[in-house]
Amino acid sequence: MPQPPLPTVIDYFRSSRCLVILDDVQNIFKSSQLAGQYLAGSEDYGKFFKQIATSSHQSCLILLSWDWSLD
């Protein structure tokens, strides 16, 4: 089974200053659940976000999301 690309992405963030924009981030989460409840198969995003937040680098990550509720 191949390794996920996290080490490569983190290394790239450290070696090159870059901007990454992820759109429609709401699609990786379970709807009507508390924050941080990932859909099956999307759990690695949580590891990715945590690694980006805790690693030393000068890159930027922008997450775009929306919440559509009829309450």
Task: Provide key terms for this protein.
single chain, 71 residues, alpha+beta, two-stranded parallel ribbon, 2 strands, elongated
Structure description:
- The protein has about 70 residues and is α+β, with helices and mostly antiparallel strands.
- Helices cover about 30% and strands about 10% of the residues.
- Strands 1-2 form a two-stranded parallel sheet.
- The model has no long low-confidence stretch (mean pLDDT about 80).
Order of helices and strands: HEHE
Low-pLDDT runs of 5+ residues are none
- Portion of residues within helices: 25-40%
Mean pLDDT reading:
82
Overall 3D geometry?
elongated
Put simply, the count of helices is: 2
Question: For the report, how would you describe the main beta sheet?
Answer: 2 strands, parallel
Rg over C-alpha atoms, rounded to the nearest angstrom = 14 Å
What multimeric state do the chains show? single chain
Care to count the β-strands?
2
Backbone structural class? alpha+beta
What's the arrangement of strands in the largest beta sheet? 1-2
Beta-strand percentage? 5-15%
Our measurement of the CA-to-CA distance between the termini, rounded to an integer number of angstroms, reads 43 Å
